[in-house]
Amino acid sequence: MGLNIKDIAxxxxxxxxxxxxxxxxxxxxxxEKKQRVLKVLKETGYKxxxxxxxxxxxxxxxxxxxxxxxxxxxxxxxxxxxxxxAKLNGLxxxxxxxxxxxxxxxxxxxLFKEKRVDGIIFSGTIFTEKHREELEKADxxxxxxxxxxxxxxxxxxxxxxxxxxxxxTKYLISKGAKNLSMIMGPLxxxxxxxxxxxxxxxxxxxxxxxxxxxxxxxxxxxxxxGYRAMKRILEKKNVDGVLAANDFMALGAIKYLVDMxxxxxxxxxxxxxxDNMISEIYNPSLSTVKINFYEAGRICVKAFVDRINxxxxxxxxxxxxxxxxxxxxx
Length: 330
Known about the structure:
Elements: H1 5-12, H2 16-24, H3 31-44, H4 50-57, E1 62-67, H5 73-88, E2 92-97, H6 102-114, E3 119-122, H7 129-137, E4 142-145, E5 154-158, H8 161-174, E6 180-184, H9 190-206, E7 215-218, H10 223-236, E8 241-244, H11 247-259, E9 269-274, H12 277-281, E10 287-290, H13 293-308, E11 316-318, E12 322-324
Parallel strand pairs: 1-2, 1-3, 3-4, 4-5, 5-11, 6-7, 6-8, 8-9, 9-10
Antiparallel strand pairs: 10-12
Helix pairs in contact: 1-2, 1-3, 5-13, 8-9, 10-11
C-alpha cells in the first residue's frame, strides 16, 4: 500500500498540514522543517495525488485541446506545437478530436471542465449558442485557432484568410491566368470557406474579370472532393488558373488534370492553401499559401500562459503567412 501524507508527516516529525504546505508551496514553513519534509519526499519517492493537489490550488497545470482530425497533417503539426510549448511551461495536455461535430465539442468542453483543466484550445468551424452558453459558464481561458469568433472571453488565433486568398489569386492573374476557377470550402466555414472565397472574388474583380465568367465548385477539403470538383469545372469550361481553398483539394485537382493528360502549369496553373508536407514532394509540387501550423500551436499556448499571468494580450492574434511558389504555377 502506498504512502499517504500522514505517513510522510510521521517520518519527517511534522504535522500533515506542514507537509501539505511544503508540497503545494502554500503558507510559511520554517526552513528546517521544510528540508526534513523534502528529504523524506525524496527518500520515499512520494508523489502527491495530482487531482487532489489541483482541487486544493484550483489549478491543474493542464490544457484541454480539441481538434477536428489528427489524421490531417496540419492538425498533427498544430498539436505538436502545443505539446512542445506546453512542456516548456510545465503544462500537460489532454487531447481529443471532434470531427467538427458541434455536440462533440460541447461534450468535450463539459468533460474538460469536470477534469478541471486550466484552459481550452480548440479548432472548430462554427460558434453556436451552445458554445456561447458553455463559454459563459466557464471561468477559464478559451483559445480558438483558425476562426474569428466574436465573444469577449475568446482569444482567436488566425491568419487574414481573405487577404491571403486575394494575394494568391493576384499571383495567378500576374502569371497570365485569365479563365479562373475556385474550388471552395463550404461557406459556413467563415475562414477557410467564406473569407478565402471573398479574397478570390476581390482579386478577380480587380483583375478586370467578370465574376460571371469564373467557375466555382465546392469541396469538403479532401483530395477526393478536389478531384471531383476539378472534373465538374472542366465539364463547364476550359480554365487556366485554379485556386483551391486547401492543399488537399488542390492535390486532388492536379491528380484529375494529370489523369486527363493536361500539362501543369503550361495549360492550367494550380494554387493551394496551407502548405502541408505532401505539397512539397508531390509531382508537380504545389504552389500554396503557407501557414505555419506548428508555430500556431506554440502561439496558442503562449496566449494561454499570458492570459493566466494577467499579461496584456489581444483577443485577436494575427498569424503571418506567405506565398510559396513551386511547380504548379508559372
